[in-house]
Every structure is written in structure tokens, then in C-alpha cells.
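User: Predict the complex with magnesium ion.
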Amino acid sequence: MILTVRNKIQILPDHIALAIAAGEVVERPASVVKELIENSLDAGAHAISIDIHGGGLDRIIIRDDGEGIPYDEIELPFVRFATSKMPSDFYWSGVTTLGFRGEALPSIAAVAHVQMVSKFADDIASMVEVIDGGVARKERAGAPAGTAVIVSSLFKNVPARLKFLKSAGVETNYITQIVTQYVLGRPDVRFTFNSDNKLKLTSPGTGAVLDALRGVYGSEKARQFFLFDYEESEYVRVLGAVSDPAITLGTRNGITIMVNGRAIKNRNLQFAVESAYQGILKDRRYPIAILNIVVPHSDLDVNVHPAKAEVKFVQQESVFSAIKTSIRQALMDVPIAVPFRGKLSGRIVNNSGKNSEDSIETRLPFAHVENVIDIEQQPAVKDRLPVLRVVGQIASCYVVAEGYQGMYLIDQHAAHERVWYEKLQRMMDAKGLETQGLLEPVVVEIPELIEQAISPYVESLEKYGFDCEPFGHNSYVLRGIPLVFAHLDPKDLFLSSVYGMRSGQVIDADQDALIKTLACHGSVRAGQALSVAEMQELLRDLESCDNFRTCPHGRPTVLSFDSTFIEHQFGRR
Ligand code: ADP
Ligand code: MG
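Assistant: Here is the predicted structure with magnesium ion placed in the model:
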């Protein structure tokens, strides 16, 4: 008989069970900061200060001016599942607070040393100290109304977790990201964030998202955002601020998505933001966007993630499309003048139709779901290139022009590409491109690899105005080309279109890729001398573009030099 040594099945002691469960809520210092900020917001704070030391591993201190906790209840938050936010509906179909699980403080206390000082209304202020998850001390204290939580020695008792953390600098970055999200998502709250006694971020809490943007990105950049308020249906509303395509980041960290005032992570919605910028930004460049999505609380399941970082929508599709449409419209329609340096930037046209520096500053009750009805609607005015006078051409590549705000340099190829791109798009949306028959058919030979890849799609070339058919081995006979490009060399045009269908190793049969190729092929090149009349025509055409700022590949078409800027540079101001 084999004797096996086995341990009896036992129930884990509380402190171990709690430390294990805590791992789900408190992954790193940034999770502590997130939970504490959320508690302060739930307590109705108007001002929140966050101080961290050593990337949050040495100490995190969060103070708020929220409603506080009565002396009699000060120990309760450290009991697991103790909460003052019990939803009226047990199945969470109506959670309006950020917290609801009663797990954050017990989890933090399981992996750190916690002190909490709080004062509720006229009650006496109290202080508790929690060590190894248990309340070790409770005293009366002198403190202003509100709550302060001090978390130190984080993960000291969980060496395994410490090993997974990054350097203090990296942990500070994670914390900064969380704080930034709340600063931008809750412009109605005044935030101050210090790291190792150095001020990193501050916002005035005026309720204007522009003020919060200033706190995070500085005044100059903040002016280059488009603000919008978009209501797709009774179901979903998107309040947002998105960066001008001229401002981009190399990562997606600038995309903040809040749902009913809660910062969430959602790859799918992040993708909705990116896709709104498709064709406007260069590859691997990302916009800065702050979106506050408002949906009925009953259509949102917030209890799908221990750290409450994810949510589920009943109608995810509607939310996706609302995000995409709202940003698209904002980029095209928001009446912000050309975001160049100088006094013009950041202007907005208000209801009376006159320019006003102030109207963009009006309070946007960003995260205030109750207030959303009061939001002022701004009329839509197209973002247009100003009327320009051609001065000349330089380097056979750029058009120099003058407008009433200053000087402009236009990249002739990029601009022409944009013009063609939009023209072709309109034609394709109407009835496709017309064909111009060739006097003599042309036989075009295509490399075998490419031929194999594109042959299934050649028929679709017909609606682009090509009349062609296979002609023996790796060859096509070309009988007609798009009428609008009748002046171009048929063989070149056909070949580059065929190459254009093949982006990388995959065939991109979608209309956009081919239109981009045709637009590029049909446009004037850099290095081509242009007459004044040709340059004038180019500028007129660019003026009428929906999206004049970039070429279809995302490169800028226009650089501008505001007259104030020029005066400054010449020391005239
Ligand atoms: P939850 O937020 O899910 O309720 P927590 O563990 O985060 O759980 O907090 C427990 C309780 O402690 C809260 O429900 C709230 O009553 C109280 N509390 C925590 N932080 C604060 C704060 N900053 N101000 C006022 N009350 C707080
Ligand atoms: Mg909480």
C-alpha cells in the first residue's frame, strides 16, 4: 500500500484570503491612487490633492474636501464588503457611484500600512491606523472637513508582487496617467498632483474642459483642441475634446475614455477613436482625446472587473458609432479657426455668429450627467482654408501665399493629392469613374507575383474607369482608362493602380486604397514648376476640401506663419 501524505482541506485564514483577493484590486501603486481618487469623488469632493513618494511605493497621500466619515464609522471602511454605496438594485443595474464593492480600502490595507483621518460635518474628526488589515489605533484628531488617506510601505509584506513592479519612475508614469484621466474627465474638480514634492499637474476645477486641458498640456496646446457635445440618440451622448490632427502622440495614452464619469479601458472604443482619425493621421501616430460617454445607468454593467476598469454596454455598437461620428464631425465642423500661433487660435464662433474668445471658455458640464441638458449648442461652421493670394513658388515644390492672418507655405503635391482624393471620392460615391477609350489598346505586362495577387480583383477596376482584360501570360490588354486621367500615360496609370491595390502582402480591395493611389498618381509632383494660374487653381480647390489640412496619407498640406509670430521674430513686438 502506498502512503500518500496529504494536507487536509482547510479554509484560508482571513488575512491570507484577503491578501489574495487584494491582488485583483491592487495591482500596483497606480491602482491605489485610482481607488482613492474614486472614493474622494464619490464623497462629493470639489478639491483633491495627490502626493506620492518613490513612485507611490514609499507613500501615497490623498486628501479631499468631500463629505467625510463620522467618528462612529471610521473603522468600518476596512471591513471587507462594507460600503455606504449599496445600490438600490442588487444586480447593479443602476450603480451611479464609482465604488460599490466595498473592497478597495480592505484590499489596500491588506498590502500596506494605512492611516485615515476624516471629519464629517460637525462631528469630531477621527484618525485610524490599520496594520496588517486590522485597526490598530483609533483616536480623536484635529482635521478639516473631508478625508485624508495615507498609504505607506505598499507591498512590503508581498515580496512576490514587488518583483513585478517597475522602477519608481515607471510607476510614477502609471500614476500620472490615472490622475490625468480624472483631471480631464472631471474638470469640475480641482486637482493637485505632486510627486516627490514636485508639482506635476494641477487643474483649477472651473468645470471648463479647456482649463483642465491647460493644466495637463499647457495653454498653447490646449487651444488646439476641438470641443464637442454630440447626441446620437436618447441612448448615447458623447461629450469630448479631441486634438487637432497636428498634435499627435506616439502612443495611445492620450486617449481617455470615461463612461458616466468613470475612467474605463476598452480596446474597442479606443479603436473607434482611432478610426475617426483614419486618413488624417500618419501611421502609428495617435490623437489626444477625452471622451465622456453618457448612457443610461441601467444599460451599463459596471461589475465585470475587480478594479472596475471595464464595463459592458447593452448597446456597444451604438456607442462605437457615436464616438466615431462625433469625432469625425468635430474634426470637420467645429468652428475653431486655423490652429496656428497667434491670436486667431482657439476662437470659436458663437450663436450670434460673431467671433468671441470667451465662448470656448463657457462651462462645459463635462461629467455632470444631471446638467447635460443645459449645454449650449455651438453652431457648426466648416474648418476652411482662408482665402489666399499666391506670392510664388519655391524649390519647385512649395507654393508661398499670403492670407490676412499671415504667410502660408503649401506643399503642392500633398495639397493636390488631397484635392484629387476628395474629388475621386465624390465621383466614386456618385456613379464611379467614366472611361476614356484608348485609340489603340495597350498591352501591359505585370510581374507574376503581383499578377497572382491581384487577378481576382481586376474586375473591380472597371468602376474606376479602367477597361481591361487578361491577355495571356501575366499580361493585360488595356482599352480604356479613367476619363479624368486621360492626359496621363495609360500604362503607368494602370500599373500604379494595380500596385496600389496591393498594400504590403495583402490585397486591399477597398475603395480607399485605390483612390489614394489614383490621387497620388494624378497629382502634380514635387519638382514641377507651376504657373501662377495653376497655383491659384490649386489653392481654390484646396479651399473647398472638407479636410484641407492633410494629404490622404496624413502628411500636412499647409504650414502657416501667423503675422504676430513673424512680427515677434523680427523684434517688431
Ligand atoms: P466602496 O468605494 O466600494 O464603497 P471602499 O473600500 O473604497 O469601498 O470604501 C468603503 C467606504 O468607505 C465607502 O463606501 C465610503 O463610505 C467610505 N469612504 C472611503 N473613502 C472615503 C472618502 N474619501 N470620503 C468619504 N468616505 C469614504
Ligand atoms: Mg471605493
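The two ends are 99 Å apart (CA to CA).
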